[in-house]
Amino acid sequence: MNDPHVVALIYRIEHGKLIDYSKAEPLVLEEPKFLLEVNDKQVRFDFKTHYATEVDARRSIEDYIRFWEFDTELKYGPDTFRLKFVKSEIVDRDPTPGMIYAEPLRVEVGIGPPALSISIGVGRYHPPPSDIGIDPDVEMIFQRYLRFRSGREPLLSFSYFCLTFLEYAAKRDGHSGRKREAAAEKYRIEKNVLDEIARLASQKGGPEARKAVGTAADRYLSQNERQFLNREIQRIVRRMAEIAHSDSQNEIT
After folding, report:
1. Per residue in 138-186, pLDDT tens?
2. Is residue 148 part of a domain?
3. CB-CB neighbours of 250 under 10 Å
4. How many domains does the chain have?
5. Over the chain, what is the mean pLDDT?
6. Rounded (10°) angle between helices 191-203 and 155-172
7. Contact 136, 246 (CB under 8 A)
8. Which residue, 75, 93, 121, sits at the end of a domain?
9. In terms of domains, do 57 and 117 share one?
10. How far apart are CA 249 and CA 253, in angstroms?
11. Residue 195 is part of which domain span?
12. Of the residues 121, 146, 175, the one at which a domain ends
């Protein structure tokens, strides 16, 4: 090609058995550098910016895709949203007369009957976020979160890890005061929320308890307490990503 131009990149949403996108409405978003269209698990990036190679075009949306995968799996759990590259559409803006260029065709075939399973049916695709970043701290806590969501780490263990990591990171990064106050300041989370996580993680749990005091029969987590922990640790993981994007955040209460 004399003057190649990447018109679009096509991806496919891949996921496990725990989520069902078959009834999800199409999603269309106008972004500064491309038009995003999602329909029937096909994701199309139509570029407004010129890229001469597939490699350059893909590199330009790497972070966008990563943040989108992060935010969706934070909401729905592991193996619920991954974008797999399918193909590019490239044209020659200055073609040689009489020359025809054929783009390579990528074909992938899945074989085997679908397995029966219970899945979450979603009515719309989770939209790409614009308010998060991913640094090493966020990546680490997110991998632990996926481990927890997949059932490989108890709720109380992960809750306590989240709390102590916030405290460690706040002191490491120079925030003054006691470690919990420092964590509340750095991550803009009300200290009462962190105190309640600490109380439940240290004093409750029954067979899930971290400490012996939490194993008594009257120390089992109530449904409300379990819901509180599940909700708050998800908010904490996202807050870390929000802080990685910008320090200016409203306080979590």
Report:
1. 999 999 999 999 999 999 999 999 999 999 999 999 999 999 999 999 9
2. yes
3. 7
4. 2
5. 89
6. 140
7. no
8. 121
9. yes
10. 12
11. 136-245
12. 121
Same domain, yes or no: 183 and 236: yes
Query: What dihedral do alpha carbons 149, 215, 221, 238 form, nearest 10°?
Result: -40
Q: Do residues 117 and 44 lie in contact, with contact meaning Cβ atoms separated by under 8 Å?
A: no
Within this chain, do residues 21 and 113 fall inside the same structural domain, yes or no? yes
Pairing of strands 34-39, 42-47: antiparallel
Predicted pLDDT of residue 37: 99
Q: What is the pTM of this model?
A: 0.87
> Are 66 and 140 in a shared domain?
no
> Exposure string (b/e) for 20-52, b if CB count within 10 Å is 16 or more?
ebeebeeeeeeeeebebbbeeeebbbebeeebe
What is residue 222's three-state secondary structure? coil
The pLDDT tens digits for 193-211 are 999 999 999 887 666 656 5
In Å, what is the CA distance from 29 to each residue of 32, 98, 126, 167? 10, 37, 12, 38
Distance CA 87, CA 104 (A): 8
Q: Let me know if residue 143 belongs to a domain.
A: yes
Going by their DSSP bridges, the two strands 27-30 and 34-39 should be labelled as antiparallel
Q: Do residues 15 and 54 both lie within one domain?
A: yes
> Residue 210 is which amino acid?
R
Look at residue 105 and tell me whether its pLDDT is greater than 80: no
Residue 62 domain flag: yes
